[in-house]
Amino acid sequence: MTVHNAFGPVDIAVSGMRAQGRHMEVISSNIANSRTADAGQGQPYRRLEVIFRTEQEGVSPVCIDQIVPDQSALQRIYDPGNPKADASGHIILPNVHVPVEMMNLSTASRSYQANAAILKRYQKMVETTLELLR
Amino acid sequence: MPQPVDIVGLLEAGIRAEETRQRTIASNIANLETPGYRRLDVRFEELLAKALHSGQAAGATQVEPEIFQPAGTPLKSNGNDVNMEMEIGEMLKNSFRQAAFVRLLRKKFAQIETAITIRE
Prior knowledge:
The complex is a heterodimer of chains A (134) and B (120). Chain A is of the alpha+beta class.
């Protein structure tokens, strides 16, 4: 998305809302799969992380650079009754920690709100300017 | 002597373009979840700039907004590429421009009215 000179703050705030919306999608995937022992190829689900970047140098909208799997250690939990348990009675579960995800969710939703607030405030500013045309 | 610019005509063309754009945004939002729907956009400012630069200011008021389908927007899994936040942003910008044009038009009419009443 390119930023036009007129009403640039709108494009930037919208890019922030879109990016945070996508971030929330990734967080919800992490939470929904926090106990998924098989993510398709027999391997447990790996927590996904969103990496943001600017679209251009200087004043710029935000966009999502990539969504990468978190390479930190998977959880090993003792559960001998589980059919997926290994010889020592352990199962491997995703490296998702729900409290961490909830914290990220708060950050994402606050950031979304902040961008919406910018949009609202900017709308007020433009309305003030348009009042001068009366 | 440069040709006088038809301000009322230009503003009218602008308001017409914003109305078309508002309709495409409404269509985009209505089809937020329609599988395979691709968002529509309106091309007007570029056409207007081209008409103004061509030296024929009279032709600028005849510029019609053009509806087109932008390529390269990320598709969702259902083949749809409408994003609600983006449409809201577009709608906001559209209403700013529309309000500015309408107010300028009113100013222009008030000016004409002043010119008429001054003779009385």
